[in-house]
Write a structure and sequence with these properties.
It contains ten helices and 26 strands. It is α+β, with helices and mostly antiparallel strands. Among the domains are: about 80 residues, no CATH class; about 80 residues, no CATH class; about 80 residues, no CATH class. The strands form eight sheets. The protein has a six-stranded antiparallel β-barrel with strand order 3-6-5-4-8-9. A four-stranded antiparallel beta sheet has the order 13-12-11-17, with no helix packed on it. The C terminus is likely disordered.
């Protein structure tokens, strides 16, 4: 810079104040020799790259990060800071805060948001799910989860968010829960669905009970009265009285808790070689002749104390809709919620559950990974370390002759540990009075002593 002074200073300054120019030249020379000012200005792009920075700037970065950065590295510190730069880019995220504690304190912390406990009026959301029930043709129906399904016979599509398995006496039905707003086109019962990337995964859309229609509401019923079909144990739907007229006890609405089965899929009819009968709308038909056998009407059974005079009919559909439920309790005063206080219980605060006091890490966290304007709070865990080591010392006690004290042992008991469910379908009929299961019990061990031979005997029971 001293060599360029003549081009910057006006002529009248150079003529009248030559000593001033000598001082400026000497001062600039001093800055260059002691602080390398010109060097750093000329190498500014390199200084911005942590892998090419000079040592003194690297130390300044260490001071900025805080107390937890070690001064003795297993690797080159430049490599360390180059790798950790992604952490600073993630500033403001929950994962960035957790990563900070894992790296510098080796502490697997938990993050809580006090705002999640704040009362929000009218926060409850009413959620209803649309489902397609299917019978598997090929592949594992669980693989439908997370995929977009397509109807083969006529175009319709939807995205499956969840798959549930339902077991009935006449077969297994898979319930595919569809993502909200993803249904395109119209699905039809008995049609085939598949996925684009695996055409071997196929299933037939089931004809399902979508609604129990009230033809006559009757009288003297109560909310919660159970409704099923007589003689169809194992395949019947299950419904409950949801709403009644308070004065007369007339049934006003019904809620389905289990959609049942009762319709034999076409692919099972076509491949049948052993069964004599199949179900269609809960009525029994004969293979070969397709003649209906047995009762031609459905008898509804209502478990009620005084109700009477009711009549129902069934509506079928390829897509069923759940009755619905509220999701979220932040608007319910009866829950464990609080009012906003603009300090702890507010949108811009978070709580860290850690093993270290907040005065140790608050400053570095706010400098590095905590977003500007947020308030971190510490919730210290109280922990202790227990010594679970084994004492290497040994203990021995010998008597001659050997002495034993014989005592009565307690009686052996048996308790049911679990229940293994076996769903069996008999050869000549679809319906079972009850399912067949096997009880699994704990095995008890008795120990006895033979005083004559000074030996122990065991017996498995």
């Amino acid at each position: 810079m001293s060599t360029l002074i003549d081009s910057f200073v006006p002529d009248h300054i150079q003529a009248n104040f030559p000593q001033l120019l000598d001082f400026v030249r000497a001062y600039l020379t001093y800055l260059e020799e002691s602080n390398y000012s010109g060097y750093y200005q000329n190498t500014l792009p390199e200084q911005r790259d942590v892998r090419q920075q000079d040592e003194q700037f690297l130390r300044r970065i260490e001071n900025e990060i805080g107390l937890f950065v070690p001064r003795e590295y297993q690797a080159d510190p430049k490599i360390f800071y180059d790798r950790i730069s992604d952490l600073w880019r993630a500033k403001g995220s929950e994962e960035a805060i957790k990563t900070f504690f894992r790296i510098f304190l080796d502490d697997p912390v938990q993050i809580r948001l006090p705002w999640d406990q704040v009362l929000i009026p009218s926060d409850g959301r009413w959620v209803q799910e649309d489902k397609i029930r299917v019978s598997s043709i090929s592949g594992d129906p669980r693989d439908f989860a997370g995929q977009e399904i397509f109807q083969v016979q006529s175009f319709a599509s939807a995205i499956v968010s969840r798959v549930d398995r339902r077991v009935y006496s006449d077969g297994i039905i898979w319930e595919l829960t569809l993502s909200k707003g993803s249904i395109v086109g119209e699905f039809f019962e008995k049609n085939t669905i598949t996925v684009e990337n695996d055409l071997t995964l196929r299933a037939e859309i089931y004809k399902s009970v979508a609604e129990i229609q009230i033809d006559s509401g009757g009288t003297d019923f109560e909310v919660g009265d159970r409704i099923t079909l007589d003689g169809y144990e194992g395949v019947s739907f299950v419904a409950f009285v949801k709403q009644i007229d308070e004065d007369t006890g007339e049934i006003l609405s019904i809620e389905l808790s289990n959609f049942g089965s009762g319709n034999t899929p076409n692919h099972i009819k076509e491949s049948n070689t052993t069964e004599d009968y199949y179900l269609e709308d809960f009525l029994l038909y004969e293979y070969g002749t397709n003649n209906q056998v047995g009762s031609s009407t459905l008898d509804f059974v209502i478990e009620t104390l005084n109700g009477s005079g009711v009549a129902f009919s069934i509506r079928y559909a390829p897509i069923i809709r759940s009755e619905g439920k509220y999701v979220g309790v932040k608007g319910q005063l009866s829950e464990s919620i609080v009012l906003q206080d603009s300090f702890f219980y507010q949108k811009y605060s978070y709580e860290v559950l850690t093993n270290f006091p907040i005065n140790l890490w608050k400053g570095p966290v706010k400098k590095t990974v905590s977003p500007a304007g947020t308030i971190p709070f510490g919730n210290a865990r109280v922990t202790d370390r227990l010594d679970l080591g084994i004492d290497p010392s040994q203990f021995s006690f010998i008597t001659t002759p050997a002495l034993y004290e014989l005592q009565d042992t307690s009686s052996i008991g048996e308790s049911v540990d679990s229940f293994s469910q076996d769903y069996n379908v008999v050869d000549d009929f679809y319906f079972l009075e009850s399912y067949v299961g096997t009880e699994l019990v704990d095995l008890a061990l008795t120990v006895g002593v033979n005083s004559d031979s000074d030996s122990f005997t065991t017996e498995q029971v």
